[in-house]
């Protein structure tokens, strides 16, 4: 049996480069716009556009993958993201920059969907928890490295954009060179927002308001620190300390959430975070004090989301957790779109400190809302093992539900694996013969599954497995060609020949399955 860690190494490398470049681009733009002395609302609008792109990408990504396959979808998305990042060096029009941020968000979400589809395909059921946790850790480390990289270029010239473009370009290499079979396409998890808000109102309210806080921090904290007079190296330290605190807090907060009521823990977290952010807003800047306070902010602010998801999962049935995951991600994305716009407007009108003033107000509203909901909701049933590590930012797609160890594999196969009817409908809607049959493939199409290979193919078994893989080199027969084949003898006495299903191709590889795909 093939060791799945080989595939994980390449996928984690791709994840590291992708998230690093995305984090570096966000910090660079915040500092650059602050140095250009543009109104704060423009900085907030660009971060909101990025999250809007992530939300839109979750709807567009699965269609793109269904049409052209995983590798082509990833390469196309990486190309769009790279070009969009470099576009900031060509134009100074801020309205165009907003469009570029939207495209970056859209493309990166498509990349996340490809990565998570591949991880889900290669992970054994017993490894899903380890694979998912490792994916989150790699994402956290990439965010930290992205913040630190800005300190290498204090002049904020073109060099950071070139480094971002290099990372986005190199992230294609591990995916493009993989010899693994393409993963089966997954469909987005079903959405039923109203239903889940009724079943887990505290959790989804926490996700909605918590995402406003986190989105505002990622989008506006670099500009906030720059306006305090910090140079890029100090801004990098400020951001790195916050994100590192969020990473270090995951394990102890998970243990704590298994020992006490999660709803009470979220309210306590919220109250402490409100006091802390209010203190940051009104306290004069002192370098050491600021680092300590932002470290504490990372502990409290970046654990709200995983605590809320753990609480939400404890409130629903196992069969509903796939749809819950999609609802949580949509709620997070929408909240992260709104938060930076409000915070940047307040910063422009009332001053730089209103970034944390806005966060303090959010925690006050959240605390009051949670107390109101808790008074009307039935008592929480104790549960364990529902806390799963999560980054403070949105670095996963709705397809991450397939990796979430809290979701049983049967629910994933039932709700996220396309049926035979879905395959045919998607194929008819998105695939034309010209999309997956080239003139150069005609020789391959002469070889069907029932034919004996001839000529040089006979010697294929003498070649090393690393270079010869039948699925890598032999495409499925073109539908137009298989119509003339004689029906197999085991079809009984019927004189009618059932038409074969159209199997869309991805780079001359078959990556579609008819019916739910079982996982080993």
Automatic annotation (TrEMBL):
Domain of life: Bacteria
Pfam families: MFS_1 (PF07690)
Signal sequence segment: none
Keywords: Membrane, Transmembrane, Transmembrane helix
Domain (Major facilitator superfamily (MFS) profile): residue spans on this chain: 1-378
InterPro entries the UniProt entry points to: MFS, MFS_dom, MFS_trans_sf, MFS_YcaD-like
SUPFAM superfamilies tied to this protein: MFS general substrate transporter
Transmembrane segments: 7-29, 41-61, 73-91, 97-119, 131-150, 162-182, 203-223, 235-253, 265-283, 289-312, 324-343, 355-373
Annotated GO MF terms: transmembrane transporter activity
Name the UniProt record assigns to this protein: Major facilitator superfamily (MFS) profile domain-containing protein
Record has Transmembrane helix as a keyword: yes
Positions of the UniProt region annotated as Disordered: 436-520
GO cellular component, one term: plasma membrane
Biased composition (Acidic residues): 436-455, 497-508
